[in-house]
Amino acid sequence: MSDDDDHETSGGEDDHGHRPPREEFAEDPVGHARADPGMTVGELVETYGHAGIGAASVHQAGDVLAEMLGSEDCTVFLSLAGAMVPAGMRRVVSELIRDGYVDALVTTGANLTHDTIEAIGGKHHHGRTQDPEKSPRDHDETLREEGVDRIYNVYLPQEHFAEFEGHLREEVFPALEEASDGDAVSIAELCAELGRANLEVNEREGVPEDPGVAAAAYESDVPIYCPAVQDSVLGLQAWMYGQTASFTLDALADMNGLTDLAFEADEAGCLLVGGGVPKNFTLQTMLVTPRAYDYAVQLTMDPEATGGLSGATLEEARSWGKLETDARNASVYGDATVMLPLLVAAARERIE
Fold it and tell me: Using an 8 Å Cβ cutoff, are 233 and 241 in contact?
């Protein structure tokens, strides 16, 4: 090597003090979030954009969600997994539907079960994960003896499931059986009938609680798809009713309505709350259409490294053709019971 050759120093500079161009760096200094008295939720999420790490992700997700929900041309698919209804997120979801921000809901039978329990007068209650005076096992054994089911720190008396069963057998299943005339019923038809019955009983009985998610979807003509309905008390009761009646469900029938909705969309967006079957069912819809999602926002606590779909990134979904190559997408890693109301409030504030 000649004496004329340039040599780089440890700081990346050559002997003349020149630094080569940086490919991955653009000057954009991190600022600082604010927490001022009287700030709105939207203003808080906006100031997150000055910060980094999780705050920056929340800001980005709020930006994408606002654009998605605010677009008149975008067909919005909401995927709702987990125990979001018993955790107290029921009204956030039902108001999104009633106010015209959701075109299709993909959820679990568990969420529909708990939604119905509240629609007909039952309530979930604050509990605790463990009695400090007992071992974890003794604590839950006591709950079992007392007829109380626990979902983390939420309690539900078991008698509400008996009331739920009576509601299905009196208000929902017979009407479906009669209308179907012995033919199989789609799960979307079951969900619509559930929404009708929930709304009717809620009003008839003067239940103070909101009639809920299924009722909002029924009133708004928004289809509900529940691809793993049998993995719930709702599905279990449908199977039990079918043992003595001319009633059965057709799980594949829902694919027609869901794919038609995707085919007809000018633009498509999805809000994925949690993972599981609802997330995959929502994303895979685009595999049988000539298009893909233009917008996607994911709220999850699942890690990518396990290889499971629940933790799969939206970038991975792009490799499958579920997202457009230029789709706007964002992921927030955190508790959906914290993040969903925050992001929805911020997006709606910007839109409205």
Answer: no
